[in-house]
Amino acid sequence: MSHYVDEVINDLKTRYYWEKEFLQAAEEVLNSLKLVVDKNPKYKKYKILERIVEPERIICFRVPWQDDKGEYHINRGYRVQFNSAIGPYKGGLRFHPSVNLSVLKFLGFEQIFKNSLTTLPMGGGKGGSDFDPRGKSDDEVMRFCQSFMNELFRHIGPDTDVPAGDIGVGGREIGYLFGQYKKLVNEFTGVLTGKGIKWGGSLIRPEATGFGVTYFAQEVLKTIGTDFKGKKVAISGFGNVAWGAVTKITELGGKVVTLSGPDGFIHDPDGVSGEKIDYMIEMRNSGRDKVQDYADKFKVKFEAGKRPWSIPVDVAIPCATQNELDIDDAKQLVKNGVKCVVEAANMPCTLDAVKYFIDNNIPFGPAKAANAGGVATSGLEMTQNSMRLSWTREEVDAKLHQIMISIHDACQYYAKEYGCPGNLVNGANIAGFIKVADAMIDQGLV
Ligand code: GLU
To answer: Ligand 1 centre and the CA of 83: distance in Å?
Structure first.
């Protein structure tokens, strides 16, 4: 007899066969839940799996805008409002040419469980556009953001749906989006997070994902009796998440020896520290999207078109984007003696790479747990907005640190409880799922 979980996976594969990224994310989560649904028949009775894989609502819209030369352009805009069982929809907006419904459904689905793990009351959502901010002027980005918000504002609100940033959406974009929202609804509310510090943003929010990943990795390292001191770390990407991670890892005595971009990776055996960390921000703001600039400036090795996973390191933290670390990379890392792998981007490791790490007893921190510090600090920004006050850096950082420890503890606890001690992938999926699923049952068939 086929298993309830397999039936749901097969149904999804037939119905949404072209949604490659979404199917990958759904399959990973659902497979972890076999143990849970076997123990708790109520989830099958109430058809929780069939319901949880279907977004509550998807909004697709046209985003017309004009470039500096006066030419018209049309992009596609989306918001996937996936699940609101435990709070208003919450999740970022991604502006990148690779954005489509499959990518946003995968991100929105992950966000449900990630947000549940944060211990804060936030549902799951995600949105964005196939607009490419690269090479656009500030005015073009502003016009695009205003046009995007001209439709999105109808569907969001501080108690309905609270978007934030993601790839291609940083402080500048959040500013333009917030300005247009405020003009349209004539209200100053905490509707977006990642806001500027002078107008409702939270301290530590820009650093939060990277800091959170590092705090999570620190807990993982503790379980194998060690810490970051003197450890060599491979990082991919050089954006916001990578910057936060490099900053905190360096502070804790680790040495980050790689960064990467769409053009290749750099190897800096002396470690990315001091002014080199500040240069990461300069590189990002230049909009060139080329990590080779780092190699040219600091005279280190640049490998064009390659990923950084061939460099022997103790810890690997992929910070760039989905599926950037595959089975061959995983084999190479294990061969080179990696001690732990922690995902900072969303779903950066392919399913077979994750399986390889787990089969080889490499402690592995999945994204939805390890990178939840970003959205958790967004949750703290929402709290501060509701209270109409601002916490200090130290207060926010202490809360973030505590949340990351709680997430790690929850993953360990549920992994053990369901018979797979140390398997943080299962632990994260199960811990995130149970809270949302029970809330869905409590609230009836809606
Ligand atoms: N885009 C981030 C994530 O993937 C943050 C979302 C948020 O702050 O709402 O979790």
So the answer is: 15
